[in-house]
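User: quick one, sequence for these C-alpha cells?
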C-alpha cells in the first residue's frame, strides 16, 4: 500500500535541517521569477515540516502563489494570499532559516499595496521591479 503524502510522519529537526537545500532552491526559483516552480518545490517539504516552521514555509508558498496569479492576470485572491502570508510571517521576525523576514514583510507589503492600488483592471500597469526578492543566506 502506498503511503499518502498527507499521512507521512513529520520531519525531526535534524531531518528538516538536512533538507533545507530544497527550501533554498525554492527561494532561488522565486527570485528568478519562477513562482509556480517555487511553490511546487517548497510544497513537498512543507507537507512534512513540523510547526512552527510549517507555517513559515506556508507563508512563502502563499507569496509564490499570489505572484503566479499576478503573472496570469488573475486578480481574485492575490491580495488575500498576500495578507494571509504577511500575517504568518510576523511570528518569524526578524529572520528565519537565513531569510531576512523583516525585509520580506516590507517588500511584500509594498507590492501588495501597489497591486491593490492598480486594481483588477490595471494589473498590466504593475511595476514588476516591486516584486520582492527574498533576501537570504543559506544556513548549514
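Assistant:
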Amino acid at each position: 500500500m502506498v503511503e499518502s503524502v498527507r499521512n507521512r510522519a513529520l520531519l525531526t529537526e535534524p531531518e528538516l535541517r538536512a533538507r533545507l537545500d530544497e527550501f533554498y532552491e525554492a527561494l532561488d526559483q522565486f527570485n528568478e521569477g519562477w513562482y509556480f516552480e517555487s511553490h511546487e518545490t517548497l510544497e513537498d517539504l512543507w507537507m512534512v515540516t513540523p510547526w512552527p516552521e510549517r507555517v513559515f514555509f506556508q507563508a512563502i508558498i502563499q507569496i509564490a502563489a499570489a505572484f503566479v496569479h499576478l503573472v496570469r492576470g488573475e486578480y481574485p485572491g492575490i491580495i488575500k494570499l498576500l495578507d494571509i502570508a504577511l500575517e504568518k510571517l510576523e511570528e518569524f521576525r526578524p529572520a528565519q532559516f537565513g531569510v531576512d523576514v523583516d525585509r520580506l514583510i516590507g517588500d511584500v507589503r509594498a507590492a501588495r499595496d501597489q497591486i491593490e492600488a492598480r486594481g483588477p483592471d490595471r494589473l498590466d500597469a504593475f511595476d514588476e521591479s516591486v516584486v520582492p526578492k527574498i533576501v537570504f543566506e543559506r544556513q548549514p
